[in-house]
Amino acid sequence: MTPQKLSLDAPEDLIPLYRGEMVYECIGCEKTFDIHQFLYTCPDCKSLLRIKNNAFSRLQEKPGQYWREVLDYRKMLNLPPLKGIFRFYEFIFPLFPLDEIIYLGEGDTPIVKSNPDLSELIGAEFYVKNDGLNPSVSFKDRGMASAVSFINYMIKKKNISKLLGICASTGDTSAAAALYLSYLDKKVVRSVVLLPKGKVTPAQLSQPLGSGATVIEVPGVFDDCMKIVEELAENYQVCLLNSKNPIRIQGQKSYSYEIAQQLDYRTDNLVVVVPIGNAGNVTAIMEGFLDFYRVGIIETLPLIIGVQSTHANPVVTWRETGTYVPMQIKPSVAQAAMIGNPVSFPKVSQLVEDYFNENFAAVQVTEQEIIEGMLLANRYGHVVCTQGGEAIVGLKTALKKGLIPKNATVVVDSTSHQLKFMNFQQMYFDDQYPPEYEISPRKELQNKPVGMNASATEIARYLGLKKKIS
Known about the structure:
Layout: E1 22-26, E2 32-34, E3 49-53, H1 56-59, H2 64-74, H3 89-92, E4 111-113, H4 116-122, E5 127-130, H5 140-158, E6 163-168, H6 172-181, E7 189-196, H7 202-210, E8 214-218, H8 222-235, E9 239-240, H9 246-252, H10 254-262, E10 270-275, H11 280-295, E11 303-309, H12 314-321, H13 345-356, E12 360-365, H14 367-379, H15 386-400, E13 409-414, H16 422-429, H17 456-463
Parallel strand pairs: 5-13, 6-7, 6-9, 7-8, 10-11, 10-13, 11-12
Antiparallel strand pairs: 1-2, 1-3, 4-5
Helix pairs in contact: 5-6, 5-9, 6-7, 9-11, 10-11, 11-13, 14-15
């Protein structure tokens, strides 16, 4: 539907008129810096940056019900810039004009009610928000749509003739960065990704290669790659596209906004279960709900439950002991979450201390539970990745610990698509996990093709079919 065909009662902000006053703000010394630069850490104290809208109070001048109507009306529009994460323009990055927004079909992913049999196995009904249905089949497209739209804006505003976008990745970030950067002028923008050699699935490796990125494999794990790109971003003219880039976090807030809208803005007794990984997503989810709460779009903050593997659990340990200590990781099937020192942890700890102390918990699950969580969910009609499996069994653990309120509405985050991690499924079916994974397949969850002759009679006999009676 076009704006002209909507009711005369449509709110005046249907097409965004509001422009924010965006700045970088240091989470340490709280100094602010001009937004019109590529900046990731505070030039003075080296702490992480967040995006601050100095004109946010103007949004609070109109009641939450008004903004609900704006967002609901926008959902009916057939206007590409407002169809994805920028439906929530005022809360994402209200700086640039609509024609500079890069929209590739990201966002607006469904929440799917759990199969009743799966609910019984886990211990409660829940919804899966399937972010594997984004263009590069992971949630990273949300943040990349924001960050690359900003790049597009900056190229035009600053007359930039050459720009290199770079990221470290275990797979999903590289796929999203390469995809979105490939949409820009290739004479201006070059895409480079650093991957830990042998630690990325073949499906994930194929994505940045297919998008034309320069892929550099280095020995080690994600944390080693991250150190290199941080050094490059600090000392060279490059644009960092990891979650250390606070503009990426802005885009990932849309996950929270969508859940609120999909639940008709009822967030009382809401629980959101999310794998922690590099902690950028859980940061964005908390910040997103906080934005809506501050404006009155939602009336209560939800309970956020972060999940980590026992092979990479520094946030769980921090929540249990009060002390944060980076750790050496072990191999994990939840590769995107295999991070021993999450770069966005300082933001998580600050958000928890200031706003979510009673509304944030962290639980850990085993590698065996993670892979079987994925297999069970998909066997019962869902399409989740290993990180989605991690979140689902994290819910089961949280239920056992008594962390989930009665009659809660639970949304579980499946961050990417099952097919990205099909090699881990196959390793389970073939019982080929190295000992360090600590996974022993169960026969009832293994599945393999059966070779037979091309004979209907033989196949019918194998399947136990009975002939029709004439």
